[in-house]
Amino acid sequence: MKLSTKKTLAILSLLAIFTILLVQVPTAHSEVVSTSIAQNKALTFIEDVIQPDMSKYNVTLVNDVVGQAPNQPSETQESVHYYLGGTNGNGLDILCVFTNNILTFAQLTTNSSSTFYSDLSTTNVTAEALAALEGYQTYTGENLQDMTNALTSVDATQNLTKTSGDIQLTVQNTPPYVAIYLKSIYNGTVYTGVQFSFQNGQFYTFMDDRSLYTIGNTDVNINETQAVNIAQQYAQNYSYSTSNGTVVQGGFNVTRVNAGLSFYSIDNSTTIEPYWSVQLYLGQFYPGGVYALSFGIWAGSGTLFLAQPIALGGGSLPAASNASTSQQTQSHGQTGISTLDLGIATGTVVAIALISAIVVKKRSK
Predict the structure, then answer these.
(1) How many H-runs (helices) and E-runs (strands) does the chain carry?
(2) Cross-strand partners of 273
(3) Do 182 and 254 sit in the same domain of this protein?
(4) Is 240 within a domain?
(5) 293: domain range?
(6) Is the distance from CB of 177 to CB of 199 less than 8 angstroms?
(7) Are residue 202 and residue 229 in the same domain, yes or no?
(8) Residues 123 and 199 in one domain
């Protein structure tokens, strides 16, 4: 299925935002000398999952940084960067990130010549993903057969979403990138899981957020219609304030509604439960450039816990509390409240890619 340029750019933008949010630099003040445990784990992951022909490379440790996880100071984060150097300046830069000693992110960049590029590439991305998944099962010692079953016999050249047992498989194909998501799903809510992405058939990135969260109550007692009704009723008297102090309350002209199930953390903990994300799109711009209202409603109880205006350009405004309702709401500084709010890795992909490009360029001279 061909995607329009607009859709392709939208998907790539979402992937970029997702990656940048996930991958952050640890706080400098907490940097310490690392042990070799993460380094050994990184090498094992490279051999088991990425699967380069190690006989072709000289392995060099570029750096190993330990720090506090961004947004979660109680968690430790370690970034291990290896360079696999070959002949004529060709080689691979591989970053592995561990959160509380568990690998949560990896990325490969290369200045590839055809020889080294083909070493990690295949014309069959499904086969590549299955091999990587099998290698990850070896690496973790887990039984990932349910994920393997979901991925088997899938054409990764097609965009698709399907459910196999308790696993939801999503394939996003935006050449030259293919992203494959294998997430657990209960009662229609997609939770945590693993993601592989490939660039021109070559391993590119890996993410696993399962160790970061504990899935709590998965009950969905409120359906979509009920959730939308709760949001619309609340919006009748909802108010927000602009940066110059203007208060806007009620009377919103809602012309379109979007609702979907996702998960959110309970009281900023690592326990997650399902919620309805409801966006009410407005037929005009309101003060502050507001064009929509976003609401979060717990799928189990129907309690509205979030109310937030969405402003032009993706910005958000301070949400004024609404004294006319007895429901307790929580104002968040962001309007997207799903798996984006992870903060699980070290060093932004953009920064690593640029640094790697510079390093590789220097080596090739």
Answers:
(1) 7, 16
(2) 264
(3) no
(4) yes
(5) 224-314
(6) yes
(7) no
(8) yes
Buried b / exposed e over 75-108, threshold 16 CB at 10 Å, is ebbbbbbbbbbbeeebbbbbbbbbbeeebbbbbb
| Residue 284, token pair as written in the block | 């005009």
Residues 245 and 203 reside in one and the same domain: no
Residue 122 lies in a domain: yes
Does residue 257 fall inside a structural domain?
Answer: yes
DSSP states of 198-262: EETTEEEEEEE-GGG-EE------S-HHHHHHHHHHHHTT-EEE-TTS-EEES---EEEEEEEEE
pLDDT digits (tens, 9 = 90+) for 297-325: 999 999 999 999 999 865 544 443 332 23
Quote the crossing angle between the two packed helices 349-364 and 5-22, to the nearest 10°: 90
User: 161, 172 in Cβ contact below 8 A?
Assistant: no
**Among 172, 173, 195, 191, residue whose Cα is nearest residue 182:** 195
Q: How many residues does the chain have?
A: 365
Q: By C-alpha distance, which of 294, 295, 306, 311 is closest to 243?
A: 311
89-93, 135-139, 211-215, 241-245: least confident range: 89-93
CA dist 138 and 54 (Å) reads 18
- Judge if 37 and 127 occupy the same domain: yes
Give 334's pLDDT tier (boundaries 50, 70, 90): very low
Residue type, 219: D
Q: Looking at the structure, tell me whether residues 198 and 232 fall in a common domain.
A: no
Do 69 and 178 share a domain, yes or no? yes
∠ at Cα 318 (257, 313), nearest 5°? 60
CA distance 364 to 342: 36
pTM of the shown model = 0.75
Average pLDDT over residues 252-260: 97
Within 13 Å and on the Cβ side, how many CA atoms surround 73?
4
